[in-house]
Amino acid sequence: MFVISGVASILAGHPFDTIKVRQQAVGEKAHLLTCISTTYKHEGVHGFFKGMAFPLFSIGAMNALYFGVYSNTLKALSYLRYGDKNREPNNFDIFLAGCAGGVGQLVVACPTDVVKVKLQVQLEDSKFSKVKDVNKASFKNAKALVKQVPHITACKKSAKSFYVGPVSCLISIYRRNGLRGCYKALSLQFCRDIPASGVYILVYESLCRQMSRKDGSVSAVATMLAGGTAGSISWGIIIPFDVVKSRLQADSIEKPRYKGVLHCARESYKSGGARVFFRGTIVCVVRAFPVNAVTFLAYEWSLKVLK
Fold first, then answer.
1. pLDDT score recorded for residue 158
2. Phi and psi for 260 in degrees, rounded to 5?
3. E strands, 7-154, where?
4. Which of 41, 207, 21 has its CA nearest to residue 114?
5. pLDDT of residue 223
6. What is the pLDDT of residues 179-230, one digit of tens each?
7. Are 101 and 73 in contact (CB under 8 A)?
8. Contact between residue 23 and residue 283 where contact means Cβ atoms under 8 Å apart
9. Other beta carbons within 10 Å of 82
10. How high is the pLDDT of residue 229?
11. At what angle do helices 220-236 and 186-211 cross, to 10 degrees?
12. What is the C-alpha separation between 223 and 297, in angstroms, rounded?
């Protein structure tokens, strides 16, 4: 069920995620409508689904890790605190268990994000059948593409600058930077995902209690409303971290612009002010609702099946 719901949520949410990443990783002209129109103009509908393969294959594992670690940590905390692992937990325990779940899923989430972001910020032109053909275009056309999308410079370089798919991208990153490259910005993702994961599950559980029936059960509609709201809130509060993470992971492997997290944050502030750290907020919050509504519906269904 985690796999099925995960695939459905990725299919529904990935186009929003691509626009969010491009908004965050590009230069100064990163307006929502500009990113959408530029993506469609040069890549068509396909452009909105770039980098989706890895998330599709890994979403089941990530959800299983998160909810598995969350459930077991919650039981352990209840046992240590009350001597009964089945006792109803308090809000602080729910938050801590959610944070633990956030740590557990990072082993899969971080390399998945690195590959996904690399592919999402790679611009192609639908006028050409293959990526390498873009490099055969006139310098005038190449320059026009780069001008419209400031973060894309690969179209003026060799075809080696492009990744033909997630596997080639991951291999290329590993060959150049080893395992460390596959986990680029892990420390920042650690700081982003831990508190967000705690808030995520705490908001969900609190809303479910508020919307539960007299017998304690929660309807499917209430589950989806609680899950969607939890997703939107948890993503909304960590956007600044997500912006810096996206920029670091999208940075060139051959000639990196940023030296680290602090350098990236400082350079981003110099170029765009405080507003730069909130790029992609609208599309991110909107995307989070349906994606997490489906995720929690699957989670509750799996709990019922396992009982």
1. 40
2. 175, -175
3. none
4. 21
5. 95
6. 999 999 999 999 999 999 999 999 999 999 999 988 888 999 999 999 999 9
7. yes
8. yes
9. 14
10. 97
11. 150
12. 6
Q: Is 110:183 a contact under the CB 8 Å cutoff?
A: yes
Handedness of CA 169, 173, 175, 178 (dihedral sign): negative
Task: Decide: 295 and 227 in contact? Cβ < 8 Å.
Answer: yes
Structure tokens at 9: 């949520």
Q: What is the largest CA-CA distance in the chain?
A: 72
Tens-place pLDDT, residues 122-164: 876 544 333 333 333 333 444 444 444 444 443 344 444 578 8
Whole-number CA gyration radius for the chain = 21
Identify the sign of the CA torsion 272, 37, 116, 175. Answer: negative
Q: Two tokens at 241? A: 């971290």
Taking the complete model, does pTM exceed 0.70, yes or no?
yes
Place of tokens 């009964």: 84
Q: Is 123 left (phi over 0), alpha (psi -120 to 50) or beta?
A: beta
Question: Which residue is listed with tokens 């994606």?
Answer: 291
Q: What is the pLDDT of residue 219?
A: 93
| CA atoms 195, 257, 111, 57: torsion sign | positive
CA distances from residue 49 to 52, 145, 299 in whole angstroms, order as listed: 6, 19, 25
Residue 211 CA neighbour count, 13 Å, CB half? 17
Residue 223 C-alpha from the chain's centroid: 22
Question: Could you tell me where the DSSP H helices lie in 162-260?
Answer: 166-182, 186-211, 220-236, 239-250
pLDDT confidence of 232, banded at 50, 70, 90?
A: very high
pLDDT tens digits, 241-277: 999 999 999 998 888 899 999 999 999 999 889 999 9
CB 176 within 8 A of CB 184: no
Q: With contact defined as beta carbons under 8 Å apart, do 231 and 199 qualify?
A: no
State the distance between the two ends of the chain, measured CA to CA, in whole angstroms.
Answer: 15
